[in-house]
Amino acid sequence: MAEFRRIIMSSFLMLLLLFTAASGDYSSIFVRVGDDVTLPFENVTHDQKCDSYTWIMSYSDYSVLLFEHGEIIKEAGAKSDRLSVTEKCSLVIKKVTVQDVGLYICRQIISGQQLGEDALYELSVVTLTEHHNNDQVELDCSVSTYGQSTHRVDWLYEGDEKYSKYFGSTPFTSSVWVTIPTAHFNRSYYELLKCAVRDGYNKKEHLFTFSPPQSSGEKPGDDATTTTSPTTTTTSPTTTTTSPTTTKRTTVNMSTSGGMKEAASEDNNNPTAPRWLWLVGALVGVAALLITSVAVLRWKT
């Protein structure tokens, strides 16, 4: 009985947080798979154990309570083992995975009254992978996002030349990859190529370097999947951009002199869903959880 009451109270709290967060300002954070990230809460008052702070994570049609009453919530599942809260009540996520993508909300409530403003963070996760397919090497950069992706992803060659033209406008993921003939592939490409992610909201650019593979037994989604033997020849890679949910596909031939020739392009434009629709989905998910909990509680009594 007490457990059901706790679920109901937590559901009410998440509904309240998500509803008021709809009009708040978002801060975008991009982090690479496997790295740690800290989500700060700048409006901290003297509260050593952070008992009055609550952290929740929302993604699409569900929400998860992560931290409440000074404790990490075990119901967060395996994710709870990677969570911690600092003395200043910032949320730390270790060894980030694509499952951590979402909207993170923090609020301080004392005696039923909110103190200060909410902290809202939209966490996007960048995955860099390497694949060997017959006679070519493919380096892939993908960005998993909360809701509608408006971020642009490009490969930069030697720091400033962009070799892809795809602007992310489809749900959840934007990706771009380069293909290099195996005979010409060498480790210098790990330094010459950088994945540039341009925030669709504040237009800031974030650079991610492709790390050389550590072993040949890594799983897909890790930084690399295979090992390679370095050579001394460098050729121009080919960049391909795509989205898994549309037919838009653009292939661009890259050259070290900066020239680009578009080889093929076909585009079906999809309307961009308003950002608030994804928040509405999260509200519906929490409401469904609340209704189910109330129904079960009444059945138990």
TrEMBL record:
Q: Please note every region of biased composition (Low complexity).
A: 225-247
Q: Signal peptide position in this chain?
A: 1-24
Q: Does the keyword Ion transport apply?
A: no
Keyword list (alphabetical) reads: Membrane, Signal, Transmembrane, Transmembrane helix
Q: Which InterPro entries match?
A: Ig-like_dom_sf (IPR036179), Ig-like_fold (IPR013783)
Q: Where is this region: Disordered?
A: 208-269
**Spans through the membrane:** 276-297
Q: Where is the composition biased (Polar residues)?
A: 248-258
Q: What is this protein called?
A: Uncharacterized protein LOC115028905 isoform X6
